[in-house]
Amino acid sequence: MQPLKSLSLIFLNKDLRRRILITVALIVIFRLIAQIPLPHVDIAGLRMFFEQNQVFGLLDMFSGGAVGRFSLALLGVGPYITASIAFQLLTMLIPQLEALQKEGEYGRRKINQYTRLASVPLAFIEGYGLIKLLVSQNVVRIENNWDMFMVLSIVTASSVLLMWLGEIISEKGIGNGVSMIIAIGIIAGLPQSIQSLVQVVAGNPTQIFMACIYGLIILAMIVVIIWVTLAERRIQVTYARRVASSRTASNVESYLPLKINAAGVIPIIFATSILVIPGFLAQLFADARSDWLRSVANTVSSLINNNYVYASLFFVLIVAFTFFYVSIIVKPQQIAENLQKQGSFVPGVRPGKETANYIHTILYRITSTGALFLALIAIVPYLLQATTPEFRTIALGGTGILIIVSVAIEIMNQIKSQMATQTYDKFI
User: Fold this and answer.
1) Which of 61, 73, 83, 354 has CB atoms 3.0–4.6 Å from 119's, for a disulfide?
2) Does residue 422 sit within a domain?
3) Helices and strands in the chain: count of H runs, count of E runs
4) Are 170 and 270 in a shared domain?
5) What are the angstrom distances between the C-alpha of 330 and each of 83, 137, 229, 255, 417?
6) What range does the domain containing 42 cover?
7) Does residue 407 fall inside a structural domain?
8) Per residue of the chain (428 residues), what is the pLDDT tens digit?
């Protein structure tokens, strides 16, 4: 009865109901776009290509099968993610962008605007490269430049449309729009993963035990992901409160929460986007006229498709991006300054620089834990697939589970926040 009561309370909230309906409507639009195929494609050959190439199989999982069926949503929100990575790096290299980032809401909106503008040419370039790659593999047949231009224009426009849908979800819906689109794409591939698992077991009944182990590992990963995502390190903070009726002041204790996994799923999304590049270039130059270029391309392709090599690269990139992203979103010096301005202090630590160093030390430790957690969760399925090749076709892994769980937690937190706001308004 309690879940039904909670659900009824959610829909009694007018603003929350509107946000949920907007989100659902936009998700439906996204899935419709992902189902509409583009012309000039050999579907059977395309599916075989993605089954044989691990990196592109992961790209297909993120797009909800849109890449595998050569649909309008071919690129998904990939160009927007690439542009976001670029601007995150540029803010550290270009002083003007760094100053703009420090201007609060105005600066954030400006950088987001630049990111959206940069996504358009990136979508065109990525679309052209992907289509040329698929043409070279004889799974897409485009015979003239006009057909190429038409397909490329449609793909670019669809990517921009998905980016726009993500922005609307973030602004007027529930959750982060880009993460939501990626999560829905992964969820859309769950029936196929379950079907693949059933086919493996049906074809070889001796694999029932390994299938059960695989399922238990996934359940354990879900529990661990939820626990770590919600975990936080609390730093005790004391501030002075002046009593209105007298001139005395009393110390009030509070705490500063620092999340263990402050970066969320962003490092995994960034790492995936980066790892696609060498595999993409390798496939593009696999049939090059130059012998040495063809040899390098084949070597890179074989390394990327090796589970152990891919898992190692994935691990390193996730750890690196976790530290990078946390260093951008959490500023110990700024936190210390804000505490000092409010008359607050950490017991036993001098305000100012020492407080900043203290917070930085704790942040480094918990970020190390969070980075290792993200990396291990992401690579476990690849290690399992390396030992059990029969489960290679099952798309759902640690990356997908982490994204789905993180998005679900974010949605639940936003719903709770909206409900709390409604309760407070009624109280007033």
Assistant:
1) 83
2) no
3) 17, 3
4) no
5) 21, 45, 16, 16, 22
6) 1-188
7) no
8) 455 556 666 667 777 888 888 888 998 998 888 888 887 777 777 777 766 666 666 666 666 667 777 788 888 888 888 888 788 778 777 788 777 777 777 777 888 888 888 888 888 888 887 887 777 777 778 777 888 888 888 888 888 898 888 889 888 888 888 888 888 888 877 777 777 777 767 766 666 777 777 778 778 888 888 888 888 888 888 876 655 455 555 566 777 888 888 887 788 877 877 877 777 777 767 666 777 777 887 787 777 777 777 778 888 888 888 888 888 778 888 888 888 887 777 887 888 888 888 888 888 888 888 888 888 887 777 676 666 655 555 555 667 777 888 888 888 888 877 777 655 455 45
Q: Are 294 and 287 in contact (CB under 8 A)?
A: yes
Instruction: State the Cα–Cα distance between residues 335 and 329, nearest whole angstrom.
Output: 11
Are 233 and 366 within 8 A, CB to CB?
yes
How many structural domains are present in the chain? Answer: 2
* Distance between CA atoms of residues 214 and 200, nearest Å: 12
Length of the chain measured in residues: 428
- Residue 178 sits in the same domain as residue 213: no
pTM score of the predicted model? 0.76
Q: Do 211 and 158 share a structural domain?
A: no
In angstroms, rounded to a whole number, what is the distance separating the alpha carbons of residues 242 and 197? 64
Domain boundary (162, 188, 214) is at: 188
Cβ neighbors of 203 (< 8 A, separation 6 or more) are none
- 56 and 173 fall within a common domain: yes
Q: What are phi and psi of 241, to 5 degrees?
A: -120, 120
| Sheet strands side by side (includes 232-242) | 249-259, 232-242, 344-345
Q: How many CB atoms lie within 10 A of CB 380?
A: 19
Task: Name residue, tokens 């426009």.
Answer: 157
Name residue 38's amino acid.
Answer: L
Residue 264 host element (H or E): none
- Per the domain annotation, does 286 fall within a domain? yes
